């Protein structure tokens, strides 16, 4: 059943675009406009009258499970509210919020379930696509909250959280999203973990624990007990990044104690427990908010094919593997381009 006034359109035709005007004198966004196209972007309609001419919009979200469901957040410095559309952005309903949203996490299967993280480190949940919200837990570490996965976790309505306890220490807990009281929390790992270290990805859960001042990396496979990850002898990691958990293997990038602008790639067994060296000295750069960018590219649609930039004698060279890292070879430039002109590339 469609809402009153809703349009029936091909979802592939609809494009929504949010534009903002940033005032450099005041140092903030002072205007925003919402645009909608129903003809693949050939023409656009301005929707400011439908969302409120005085509203300043900050973010636009599309439900990953239902493209007809749209959510817009207003600038919390002006007002704390959200606008919801159930008809691909043709019409909107406004709902006031009692908290400021910093980020949203949509459930991978349930289209109306959303987790919202606030500026004061509180996590809220809505099971009505933002119409009503309920507090789940406080002192949640930023970006360290995850939905459960059906077939791995006992309950579809369960969430994984890293919470700050005291003195910079954290704990890993799980609980049901609508009943996360002290009596209903579970602690899959009983002790404290290093802050900002929880990663829940597919069949694996990763944490870090401080042992004698050193970070020890632990992994849980299919939600079973945690075990220390077994790295090759003489590996002294000062940082570890989980790159991929596809096909029951963990691809990790590890920066050794002597490295600064490069990482080594390692591949694990199916449990994510034992790791072998895959490629050394892969180029890395610092990203926004201290996120690390590893120069590794997985070719879409072709399993096992990766490209990577590697430092060789102070030069950056591109290597390719066709068997998921078992063998690498230098990527050779073509002799001619698409127009048949010769390509001059000296190794």
UniProtKB/TrEMBL annotation:
The protein's UniProt keywords, in alphabetical order, are: Glycoprotein, Membrane, Receptor, Repeat
* InterPro entries given in the database record: Sortilin_N, VPS10, VPS10-sortilin, WD40/YVTN_repeat-like_dom_sf
Keyword Membrane on this protein?
yes
Q: Where found?
A: Membrane
Q: Which SMART domains match?
A: VPS10 (SM00602)
What broad class describes the main subcellular location of this protein?
A: membrane
**Domain VPS10: where?**
23-347
Pfam families xref list: Sortilin-Vps10
The keyword Glycoprotein is annotated on this UniProt entry: yes
| Matches recorded under SUPFAM superfamilies | Oligoxyloglucan reducing end-specific cellobiohydrolase
Q: What protein name applies here? A: VPS10 domain-containing receptor SorCS1
Give me the gene this protein comes from. Answer: SORCS1_1
């Amino acid at each position: 059943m469609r809402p009153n006034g809703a349009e029936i359109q091909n979802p592939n035709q609809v494009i929504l675009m949010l534009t903002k005007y940033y005032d450099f004198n005041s140092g903030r966004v002072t205007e925003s406009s919402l645009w909608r196209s129903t003809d693949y972007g050939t023409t656009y309609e301005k929707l400011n009258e439908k969302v409120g001419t005085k509203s300043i919009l900050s973010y636009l979200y599309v439900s990953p499970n239902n493209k007809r469901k749209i959510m817009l957040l207003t600038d919390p410095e002006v007002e704390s509210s959200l606008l919801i559309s159930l008809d691909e952005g043709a019409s909107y309903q406004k709902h006031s919020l009692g908290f400021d949203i910093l980020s949203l996490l949509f459930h991978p299967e349930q289209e109306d379930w959303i987790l919202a993280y606030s500026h004061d480190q509180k996590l809220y949940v809505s099971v009505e696509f933002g119409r009503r919200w309920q507090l789940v837990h406080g002192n949640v570490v930023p970006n360290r909250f995850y939905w459960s996965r059906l077939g791995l976790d006992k309950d579809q309505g369960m969430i994984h959280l890293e919470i700050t306890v005291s003195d910079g220490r954290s704990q890993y807990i799980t609980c049901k999203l609508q009943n996360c009281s002290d009596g209903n929390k579970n602690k899959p790992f009983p002790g404290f973990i290093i802050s900002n270290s929880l990663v829940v990805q597919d069949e694996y859960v990763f944490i870090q624990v401080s042992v004698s001042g050193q970070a020890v990396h632990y992994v849980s496979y299919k939600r079973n007990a945690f075990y220390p990850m077994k790295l090759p002898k003489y590996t002294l990691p000062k940082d570890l990044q989980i790159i991929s958990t596809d096909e029951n293997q963990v691809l990790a990038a590890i920066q050794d104690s002597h490295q600064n602008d490069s990482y080594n790639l390692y591949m694990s067994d199916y449990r994510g427990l034992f790791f072998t060296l895959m490629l050394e000295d892969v180029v890395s750069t610092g990203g926004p908010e201290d996120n690390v960018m590893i120069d590794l590219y997985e070719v879409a649609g072709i399993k096992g094919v990766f490209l990577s930039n590697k430092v060789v004698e102070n030069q950056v060279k591109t290597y390719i593997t066709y068997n998921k890292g078992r063998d690498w070879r230098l990527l050779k430039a073509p002799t001619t381009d698409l127009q048949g002109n010769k390509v001059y590339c000296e190794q």
